[in-house]
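Renewal narrative, Specific Aim 1. Our central claim is that a sequence can be written position by position from structural information alone. The example that follows is taken directly from our test logs and has not been curated for this report. It begins with the C-alpha coordinates describing the chain, in the order in which they were read.
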Protein backbone atom coordinates (compact mmCIF):
# COMPACT_ATOMS: atom_id res chain seq x y z
CA UNK A 1 0.00 0.00 0.00
CA UNK A 2 1.23 3.50 -0.89
CA UNK A 3 1.04 6.09 1.86
CA UNK A 4 -1.68 8.71 1.33
CA UNK A 5 -0.26 12.05 2.44
CA UNK A 6 -3.34 14.00 1.33
CA UNK A 7 -5.34 13.13 4.47
CA UNK A 8 -4.54 14.31 7.97
CA UNK A 9 -4.27 11.96 10.93
CA UNK A 10 -7.60 13.30 12.18
CA UNK A 11 -9.33 12.46 8.90
CA UNK A 12 -7.87 8.95 8.87
CA UNK A 13 -8.87 8.40 12.50
CA UNK A 14 -12.44 9.50 11.76
CA UNK A 15 -12.68 7.18 8.77
CA UNK A 16 -11.12 4.34 10.77
CA UNK A 17 -13.66 4.75 13.54
CA UNK A 18 -16.32 4.48 10.86
CA UNK A 19 -15.02 1.05 9.91
CA UNK A 20 -12.60 1.95 7.10
CA UNK A 21 -9.74 -0.51 7.62
CA UNK A 22 -7.66 1.02 4.81
CA UNK A 23 -7.57 4.33 6.68
CA UNK A 24 -6.12 2.66 9.76
CA UNK A 25 -3.58 0.91 7.54
CA UNK A 26 -2.59 4.37 6.32
CA UNK A 27 -2.00 5.43 9.93
CA UNK A 28 0.20 2.36 10.41
CA UNK A 29 2.22 3.21 7.29
CA UNK A 30 2.62 6.78 8.51
CA UNK A 31 3.65 6.05 12.10
CA UNK A 32 5.17 2.55 12.10
CA UNK A 33 8.78 3.71 11.63
CA UNK A 34 8.67 6.45 14.31
CA UNK A 35 7.01 4.11 16.83
CA UNK A 36 9.52 1.34 16.13
CA UNK A 37 12.39 3.83 16.43
CA UNK A 38 11.02 5.05 19.77
CA UNK A 39 10.67 1.51 21.12
CA UNK A 40 14.14 0.52 19.91
CA UNK A 41 15.80 3.55 21.47
CA UNK A 42 14.01 3.03 24.78
CA UNK A 43 14.53 -0.72 25.22
CA UNK A 44 17.45 -1.33 22.85
CA UNK A 45 16.36 -4.73 21.52
CA UNK A 46 15.35 -5.08 17.90
CA UNK A 47 12.95 -8.03 18.20
CA UNK A 48 11.27 -6.69 21.33
CA UNK A 49 10.97 -3.25 19.72
CA UNK A 50 9.12 -4.84 16.81
CA UNK A 51 6.78 -6.59 19.25
CA UNK A 52 6.13 -3.31 21.07
CA UNK A 53 5.46 -1.56 17.76
CA UNK A 54 2.98 -4.24 16.68
CA UNK A 55 1.24 -4.26 20.07
CA UNK A 56 1.02 -0.46 20.00
CA UNK A 57 -1.06 -0.49 16.83
CA UNK A 58 -3.17 -3.43 18.03
CA UNK A 59 -4.04 -1.56 21.21
CA UNK A 60 -4.64 1.64 19.31
CA UNK A 61 -7.04 -0.11 16.95
CA UNK A 62 -8.93 -1.74 19.80
CA UNK A 63 -9.13 1.55 21.71
CA UNK A 64 -9.91 3.78 18.74
CA UNK A 65 -13.52 4.24 19.78
CA UNK A 66 -12.32 5.78 23.03
CA UNK A 67 -9.96 8.25 21.37
CA UNK A 68 -11.55 11.65 21.99
CA UNK A 69 -9.15 13.75 19.97
CA UNK A 70 -8.16 15.83 23.01
CA UNK A 71 -4.53 15.21 22.06
CA UNK A 72 -2.92 14.60 18.69
CA UNK A 73 -3.23 11.05 17.41
CA UNK A 74 0.55 10.79 17.29
CA UNK A 75 0.84 11.82 20.96
CA UNK A 76 -1.79 9.25 21.90
CA UNK A 77 0.11 6.61 19.94
CA UNK A 78 3.43 7.57 21.54
CA UNK A 79 1.87 7.29 25.00
CA UNK A 80 0.67 3.74 24.25
CA UNK A 81 4.15 2.80 23.01
CA UNK A 82 5.90 4.33 26.02
CA UNK A 83 3.60 2.49 28.42
CA UNK A 84 4.39 -0.77 26.64
CA UNK A 85 8.13 0.00 26.85
CA UNK A 86 7.83 0.65 30.58
CA UNK A 87 5.96 -2.62 31.00
CA UNK A 88 8.76 -4.42 29.13
CA UNK A 89 11.47 -2.85 31.31
CA UNK A 90 9.62 -3.73 34.53
CA UNK A 91 8.88 -7.24 33.29
CA UNK A 92 12.50 -7.86 32.36
CA UNK A 93 13.71 -6.15 35.56
CA UNK A 94 16.83 -4.93 33.88
CA UNK A 95 18.23 -1.95 32.05
CA UNK A 96 17.78 -1.76 28.27
CA UNK A 97 20.57 -3.25 26.18
CA UNK A 98 21.94 -1.27 23.26
CA UNK A 99 22.59 -3.13 20.04
CA UNK A 100 22.66 -2.44 16.33
CA UNK A 101 20.03 -4.25 14.25
CA UNK A 102 21.62 -7.30 12.67
CA UNK A 103 20.39 -6.42 9.19
CA UNK A 104 22.19 -3.05 9.11
CA UNK A 105 24.89 -3.16 6.44
CA UNK A 106 27.62 -0.52 6.71
CA UNK A 107 28.19 -0.26 2.94
CA UNK A 108 24.48 0.10 2.30
CA UNK A 109 24.30 2.76 5.00
CA UNK A 110 27.24 4.56 3.46
CA UNK A 111 25.49 4.70 0.10
CA UNK A 112 22.53 6.41 1.76
CA UNK A 113 24.64 9.16 3.35
CA UNK A 114 25.90 12.38 1.87
CA UNK A 115 28.45 11.79 -0.94
CA UNK A 116 31.11 13.69 1.01
CA UNK A 117 31.03 11.22 3.92
CA UNK A 118 33.69 8.54 3.63
CA UNK A 119 33.46 5.00 4.97
CA UNK A 120 35.90 6.02 7.70
CA UNK A 121 33.67 8.95 8.72
CA UNK A 122 30.63 6.69 8.74
CA UNK A 123 32.37 4.11 10.92
CA UNK A 124 33.47 6.84 13.35
CA UNK A 125 29.95 8.25 13.49
CA UNK A 126 28.42 4.85 14.18
CA UNK A 127 31.02 4.09 16.82
CA UNK A 128 30.13 7.35 18.55
CA UNK A 129 26.46 6.45 18.23
CA UNK A 130 27.16 3.12 19.95
CA UNK A 131 28.97 4.90 22.79
CA UNK A 132 26.04 7.30 23.20
CA UNK A 133 23.58 4.37 23.26
CA UNK A 134 25.62 2.61 25.94
CA UNK A 135 25.74 5.77 28.02
CA UNK A 136 22.01 6.33 27.50
CA UNK A 137 21.26 2.84 28.84
CA UNK A 138 22.76 3.86 32.20
CA UNK A 139 20.41 6.82 32.68
CA UNK A 140 17.20 6.62 34.72
CA UNK A 141 14.20 5.75 32.56
CA UNK A 142 12.60 9.20 32.83
CA UNK A 143 15.77 11.03 31.75
CA UNK A 144 16.49 8.60 28.93
CA UNK A 145 12.94 8.81 27.57
CA UNK A 146 12.89 12.62 27.75
CA UNK A 147 16.14 12.81 25.76
CA UNK A 148 14.85 10.35 23.16
CA UNK A 149 11.60 12.25 22.67
CA UNK A 150 13.34 15.64 22.45
CA UNK A 151 16.52 14.89 20.54
CA UNK A 152 15.45 12.00 18.29
CA UNK A 153 11.74 12.67 17.78
CA UNK A 154 11.77 16.48 17.88
CA UNK A 155 9.03 16.89 20.47
CA UNK A 156 8.57 20.12 22.39
CA UNK A 157 9.02 20.33 26.15
CA UNK A 158 5.26 20.64 26.55
CA UNK A 159 4.55 17.56 24.43
CA UNK A 160 7.04 15.56 26.50
CA UNK A 161 5.48 16.85 29.73
CA UNK A 162 2.05 15.72 28.50
CA UNK A 163 3.38 12.29 27.55
CA UNK A 164 5.28 11.78 30.79
CA UNK A 165 2.53 13.27 32.92
CA UNK A 166 4.75 15.76 34.73
CA UNK A 167 5.27 19.54 34.94
CA UNK A 168 7.20 21.38 32.24
CA UNK A 169 9.95 22.26 34.72
CA UNK A 170 10.45 18.56 35.51
CA UNK A 171 11.01 17.74 31.84
CA UNK A 172 13.62 20.49 31.54
CA UNK A 173 15.38 19.25 34.67
CA UNK A 174 15.41 15.65 33.40
CA UNK A 175 16.83 16.75 30.05
CA UNK A 176 19.51 18.94 31.57
CA UNK A 177 20.60 16.33 34.09
CA UNK A 178 20.54 13.49 31.56
CA UNK A 179 22.46 15.40 28.89
CA UNK A 180 24.99 16.57 31.48
CA UNK A 181 25.68 12.98 32.53
CA UNK A 182 26.03 11.88 28.90
CA UNK A 183 28.43 14.72 28.20
CA UNK A 184 30.65 13.82 31.16
CA UNK A 185 30.68 10.13 30.24
CA UNK A 186 31.70 10.85 26.65
CA UNK A 187 34.41 13.26 27.75
CA UNK A 188 35.83 10.67 30.14
CA UNK A 189 36.11 8.27 27.20
CA UNK A 190 37.89 10.87 25.11
CA UNK A 191 35.02 11.21 22.66
CA UNK A 192 34.18 14.40 20.84
CA UNK A 193 30.92 15.62 22.34
CA UNK A 194 28.18 15.96 19.69
CA UNK A 195 25.79 18.89 19.83
CA UNK A 196 22.97 16.69 21.09
CA UNK A 197 24.89 15.95 24.28
CA UNK A 198 25.49 19.61 25.10
CA UNK A 199 22.78 20.74 27.54
CA UNK A 200 20.73 23.42 25.82
CA UNK A 201 17.39 24.17 27.37
CA UNK A 202 15.73 26.96 25.48
CA UNK A 203 13.06 29.09 27.04
CA UNK A 204 9.41 28.46 26.35
CA UNK A 205 7.87 25.16 25.26
CA UNK A 206 10.20 24.42 22.35
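The sequence written for that structure reads:
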Amino acid sequence: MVSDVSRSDEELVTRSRGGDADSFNQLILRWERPIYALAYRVIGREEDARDVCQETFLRAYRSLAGFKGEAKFSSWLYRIALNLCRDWIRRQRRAPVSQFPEDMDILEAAAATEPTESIEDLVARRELSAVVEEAMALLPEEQRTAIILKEYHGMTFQEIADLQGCPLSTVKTRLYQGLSVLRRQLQRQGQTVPQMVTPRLRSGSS
